[in-house]
């Protein structure tokens, strides 16, 4: 797989981003980390290990499988599971592995009481406007009035912002106010509403614990401002061929591009199976060679993409087969590539890591006192890593 795209993850940048978010949150806030979807595609174990070394002891995952994968290596950290208590079988595993369920519906409360002997190990998810998961405010009020919390409060109360990434979006403050009204009914309960954007948007939103994800991985939480987060990911693809193209000739499937002038193309080893989205075809996307943008020509195919080298200045050497072009790096962020494809940096990150060979750099203090294994957990394959070509740790 020497020609697979190579994804390099800078774990010291990840730790620096965690520290930045902790400073923004203030010392009263416990800053957790959303590591769902295999650490936003960057590798659950290396990411969680580095965050844990940086002081993080609260992790948010999407489902039970992710929680169990994390628990294998971290016997003591708090792991909160966003999908909620889906049934008695899974509830037993929550208890066995000391996972924190996030209760997303009133119907889940009796099960939590039965399995855990109360609500004190659960986080209650209040829906303040997402209409995705969570207990509606009126339902919560009714539960409260009917004495649902008389025999004990939940461990925490959370809600999720819908629009915190948009400057001055009125919904953010509306959600926060509704959340505070609910929290006032459970005095002393630990509160959490902030994702990365919320944390950086307003210190009030930090509350008792926070759940940032994207900012840790270098995406920009406040898109209207310069990105304060350090870039975590670089991705490169191998040049497989360089070829001349004549006027009138077409490129790729569907012959969607016809050349007007004599030109020069490179075929690079990345395609939509690697998460280099098909929407980047026909000039929408670009990659970089010596800092120069080379637009995508024709359609992106499964493993291959053609790029146009014709616009390179004379003083830039042409790439030769074996050279690597930059897909993500100092000239192109995941946010920027996402914008080219009409999507978001989150989707770019979680898709791009599918087939890439991964290299982790700046793996400081790889052995955590918390981890069960005496090896760097990142070197062990998590379920998500099965079938990956290569997992390499540098320095
Ligand atoms: C419930 C919940 N909390 C926290 C996060 C982390 O958000 P972000 O990655 O925007 O910081 C997410 C991400 O989707 C989420 O769904």
Structure explained in plain terms:
This protein has 395 residues and is an alpha/beta fold. It has 2 domains: 10-210, Alanine racemase (TIM Barrel); 233-352, Lyase, Ornithine Decarboxylase, Chain A, domain 1, CATH 2.40.37.10. 26% of the residues lie in helices and 22% in strands. It is built from 11 helices and 21 strands. Strands 1, 12, 15, 16, 17, 18, 19, 20 and 21 form a 9-stranded mixed β-sheet that branches. Strands 3, 4, 5, 6, 7, 8, 9 and 10 form an 8-stranded parallel β-sheet that branches. Strands 2-11 form a two-stranded parallel sheet. Strand 6 (100-103), helix 6 and strand 7 form a beta-alpha-beta unit. Helix 1 (11-25) crosses helix 3 (44-53) and helix 10 packs across helix 11 (345-352). The longest helix has 15 residues, at 11-25. The chain starts with 5 loop residues before the first strand and ends with a strand. The model is unreliable at 366-391 (pLDDT under 50). Residues 34, 60, 82, 160, 195-197, 211-215 line the site of pyridoxal-5'-phosphate.
Integer average pLDDT: 91
Question: Per the principal axes of the C-alpha atoms, what is the gross shape?
Answer: elongated
Poorly predicted sequence stretches spanning 5 or more consecutive residues: 366-391
- The number of helical elements comes to 11
What structural class is derived from the secondary structure elements? alpha/beta
Could you name the CATH homologous superfamily of the largest domain? Alanine racemase
Largest sheet: 9 strands, mixed
Name of the CATH first level of the largest domain:
Alpha Beta
């Amino acid at each position: 797989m020497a020609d697979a795209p190579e994804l390099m993850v800078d774990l010291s940048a990840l730790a620096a981003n965690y520290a930045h978010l902790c400073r923004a949150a203030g010392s009263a806030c416990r800053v957790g980390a959303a590591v769902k979807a295999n650490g936003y595609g960057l590798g659950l174990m290396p990411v969680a290990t580095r965050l844990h070394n940086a002081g993080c002891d609260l992790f948010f995952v999407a489902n039970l499988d992710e929680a169990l994968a994390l628990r294998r290596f971290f016997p003591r950290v708090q792991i909160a599971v966003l999908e909620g208590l889906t049934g008695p079988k899974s509830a037993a595993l929550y208890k066995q592995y000391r996972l924190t369920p996030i209760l997303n519906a009133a119907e889940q409360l009796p099960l939590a009481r039965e399995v855990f002997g109360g609500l004190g190990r659960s986080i209650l998810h209040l829906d303040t406007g997402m209409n995705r998961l969570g207990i509606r405010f009126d339902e919560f009020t009714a539960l409260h009035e009917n004495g649902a919390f008389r025999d004990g409060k939940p461990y925490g109360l959370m809600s999720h912002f819908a629009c915190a990434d948009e400057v001055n979006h009125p919904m953010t403050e509306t959600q926060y106010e509704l959340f505070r009204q609910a929290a006032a009914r459970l005095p002393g309960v630990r509160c959490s509403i902030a994702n990365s954007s919320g944390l950086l948007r307003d210190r009030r939103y930090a509350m008792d614990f926070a759940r940032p994800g994207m900012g840790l991985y270098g995406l920009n939480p406040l898109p209207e401002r310069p990105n304060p987060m350090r870039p975590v990911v670089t991705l490169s693809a191998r040049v497989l061929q360089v070829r001349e193209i004549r006027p009138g000739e077409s490129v790729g499937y569907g012959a969607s591009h016809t050349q007007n002038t004599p030109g020069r193309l490179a075929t690079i080893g990345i395609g939509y199976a690697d998460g280099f989205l098909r929407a980047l075809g026909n000039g929408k996307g670009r990659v970089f060679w010596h800092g120069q943008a080379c637009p995508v020509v024709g359609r992106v195919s499964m493993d291959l993409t053609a790029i146009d080298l014709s616009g390179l200045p004379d003083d830039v050497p042409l790439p030769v087969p074996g050279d690597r072009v930059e897909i993500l790096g100092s000239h192109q962020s995941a946010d920027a590539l996402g914008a080219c494809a009409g999507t978001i940096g989150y989707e770019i990150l979680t898709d791009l890591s599918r087939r890439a060979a991964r290299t982790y750099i700046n793996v400081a203090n790889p052995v955590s006192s918390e981890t069960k294994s005496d090896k760097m957990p990142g070197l062990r394959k998590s379920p998500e890593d099965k079938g990956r070509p290569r997992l390499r740790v540098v320095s």
